[in-house]
Amino acid sequence: MFECYNITMPLPLKKEKVLVIESDAIFGKKIVDNLKTQGYNVQLFNDGIEGLKAISDFTPNLVLVNIILPSIDGYAILAKKNADQSLAKIPLFLLSTQGIPIDMAKIPQGSVTEFILDLHADVAEILNKVDKLFGYSAGGQVSDSQVVKKKILWVEDDKLIGTILSKKLIASGFDLIHAKNGEEAMAQLAIVVPDAIVLDLMMPGMSGFDILQKIRADQRLKQISIMVLSNINKQSDIERAKLLGAKKFLVKAAVSLDDIVSEVKKLCE
Question: What is this structure's pTM?
Fold first, then answer.
């Protein structure tokens, strides 16, 4: 008679090195333990100066850094890393897990790969973001490149928020087209029909209302799901946008990046 045993095979070691710079020792250890379980080569530092030195010494493939640190904060680390050509291209996730908003004026454009802004950050979700960055699925295997991504047209003239949200949407698995104004948006719509549109209202030249009107009048485009994301919060403007075909209206100052991505996913269902 044979006895059967369930043997869990360890995941193969991954070549990627991850540096975690986190002042909360308990939370930092949770991140490290989860990353190591998935085979990553990980180092943890709780001090800003030590973490900055480790970026050069450890030469990681990814840096996770909290904005709140002893010695020097995450902004200083980001500035020094970005000023060094040999380190600037290393992807970086910037964390704010203590309820403190990130000061976007202190962040060089294009220097942050992913923002994690959550008072109760989910370690499993952080691991999922790391896996996505390196092309692994949640199970630790190489992800299926044949999955058809939902195509999103994102119309926004603000360079800073445009860069941040673009990275967030791409990291969430969307095929993103970014138009900086109404004219660019209509030029894109002349050659492609996206699954959804995320649209600002106040832009130089053609406004978001103008774009909504043109889309509504075009038989080829009128079925596209549209979400307005704007700092306008007058009820009359909200009602006008919805009358012109917007399915959802979000006020930028009232929602997080994760909320926006969640609503975009719903828009594509």
Answer: 0.53
